[in-house]
Structures are given as C-alpha cells and as structure tokens.
Amino acid sequence: MSPTALKQQITHLISELSTCYELCATIPSTRKLGSTHTSFDGLYTSLPLTIQTISAKSATLRKVIGSRMDLGDETSRNILTRAIKDVQTDIQPRLWNIAHPPPRDRRSGEQQVPGFKDILRQVTAMEFDVCDALESLSLRLQASKPTPAPTSTSAPYKANTSQPVNETHPQTPRTRKPREGDEVLVNIKELTQLLEHLKASWVEYSSEGRKYYVNAFDKTTTWERPEGGFVQSMPRERETRRWTVREERPRRDERERETRRSTVREERPRWDERERERIWEDGRGW
Predict the structure, then answer these.
(1) How big is the CA angle at 37 (ends 33 and 42), to the nearest 5 degrees?
(2) According to the UniProt entry, which residue ranges have a biased composition of type Polar residues (predicted)?
(3) Vertex 282, ends 281 and 286: CA angle to 5°?
(4) How many CB atoms lie under 10 A from the CB of residue 209?
C-alpha cells in the first residue's frame, strides 16, 4: 500500500468534485432553468466551498498530526472510497445528464429538470462524512502515538580519560535526533479545544451590500450574525473628506487675511521708523 494512500484519495475526490462544478457551469447554457432556480444556485455555490473545506481540513490536520495523516487507516480510507464512488456513480452522472439534455420530444414537451436540491443534499452529507472521518482519524492517531521512553535516573556517563585521545579525529558527543519540522506535539484535550475554537470562529464578508459569515472550520455560510462565537469583522474603510468649492472659499479667504495681518505686524516697525525720519527731514521734529 502506498504511504500516501489517504492523501491520494483526497486528491481524487477533489478532482471529481471539480468535474461536477464544471458541469454545473455548463448547465445554464444548455438547459432552460426557469425564472426561479434557487436550488441550482445553492448547488453551484456549495460545490467550490465543499472543495475548499475538504482541502483545508486535510491540510490543517496534516500540520497538526504530521505525515501519518497521508496514510490514514482502514476506517478513513473506506469512507473516502465510498465518497468517491458516490460522486462517480450518482452525483456526476446526474449532472452530466442535466448538462447534456436529449433533443426535445414534441409530443411530450420539455423534460423536467432533475432536482438540484437532492444533489445538494448528497454533496452536503458527503462533505460532512469526509470531514468527520478526517477529524476522527486525527484523534485516533494522536491517541495511538507512542509515549517516549522514560529517561534513566542513573549517574551520568563519564568519559574514560585513561584511553589516549585521537587529536586528528576527536570524538564528538552524540546529539538527539531532531523532530520533524511538520510535527507539533499536542495532547487530545488541546486538540479538542483548538477544534472547538475553530468551529466557533467566523469571518465576515460582504457581497452586493449584504454581509454574510463563513465558518472557519467547515466553511458553512450564513447571512445572520452568529451569536456566542468569534467573528472577525471586515476592515473598515477610512472615509476621506472632500472639500467643496463652497467650503474651500472661506478657508482661502481666511488664509489670505491672516497673511495680510502677519505682513502688517512685521512691516509696521519699519513703517514707523521711516515716518519718524521723514518728519525730522522736513523740520517738523522737536
């Protein structure tokens, strides 16, 4: 068995879901949906979110648990196999038939479009099963991780100084093998707390003037602000004041008056001095 069996299954499942999304993108150009197509819009919006949720869940648990998540176990691989089979044999063929309708039969009229609501329900259930399987796998791997052997309490090792020392190739002390960079040691309680915090975290977005919230754990979208959770609000844009001509004219006149007053204050001593000199030159001074 490949050491990355579960990782390959996740990649295969994401590829099949991407094909379903491409079929949904083709449907509006090949099939008349009618004036209201809420179920189709929900399915078309949900598919990329499902792909993103499964990919993010796998990557996050891979960082926490390490490379053991790539292999998985028999339980998780069976769930992924069943999910891939459901997409290949049920969801994808139904979308293909909708995207490539047969020619219209004049006697029977336009054929009825299969229910998008049922397909959306299947996709949602499949996403829940896959994410739950990955989370359960991470808990099992964390619980089955071998505990390190206890260190010996005996006296420390002392080097034998009676033996001659090789100065050309001196012996270096042994160092402990470093831990792999992608592994982080956490206990089950800490992992559970992190997952619960992730489930209660939401990110605020805005679309066409309406705010909606996306869950950080399973990418669930809601139009109502979640209560009792952690919400990351959107950054507020700083308003810039634009001065109008009517507002700017008094400010410009005030600056000009202040400039003239400042000039008068600076020039008045020199004007007084020139006036006194002129008076004395005319002989009118005392």
Answers:
(1) 125
(2) 159-173
(3) 85
(4) 5
CA distance 260 to 250: 15
Q: Which residues contact 82 (CB under 8 A, 6 or more apart)?
A: 129
Q: Could you give the count of Cα atoms lying within 13 Å of 279 in the half-sphere of its Cβ?
A: 9
pTM exceeds 0.85 for this model: no
| Domains of the chain by residue range | 1-102+114-145, 200-237, 245-286
- 9-50 per-position pLDDT tens digit: 999 999 999 999 999 999 988 887 777 778 889 999 999 999
Is 67:58 a contact under the CB 8 Å cutoff?
no
Distance CA 192, CA 117 (A): 33
Buried b (16+ CB within 10 A) or exposed e, 140-174: ebbeeeeeeeeeeeeeeeeeeeeeeeeeeeeeeee
